[in-house]
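Students often ask why inverse folding is considered easier than folding. One informal answer: many sequences map to the same fold, so there is more than one right answer. In these notes we will look at a single instance of the problem. The structure comes first.
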């Protein structure tokens, strides 16, 4: 009789421990899922920023953009054909 009571008490403690472990695991799972969603949102924002930077870079490297910068910042002009000197080897 005493061994049966001890067995029932042990099984009860094990069942409660299993339940607590299950609740704790679900709690951690929710926390990790929330963190995953936050990180994915951050990643998506960084991806959008990266695409915008690539677009900006592609527009800055075009010949027209380089010519405009040379004309505006460096005051460079295309020379008249008569002012061009050709050096022959």
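Output (designed amino acids):
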């Amino acid at each position: 009789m005493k061994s049966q009571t001890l067995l029932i008490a042990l099984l009860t403690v094990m069942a409660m421990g299993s339940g607590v472990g299950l609740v704790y695991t679900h709690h951690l799972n929710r926390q990790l899922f929330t963190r995953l969603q936050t990180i994915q949102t951050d990643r998506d924002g960084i991806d959008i920023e990266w695409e915008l930077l690539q677009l900006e870079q592609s527009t800055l490297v075009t010949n027209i953009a380089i010519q405009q910068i040379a004309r505006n910042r460096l005051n460079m002009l295309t020379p008249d054909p008569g002012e061009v000197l050709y050096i022959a080897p």
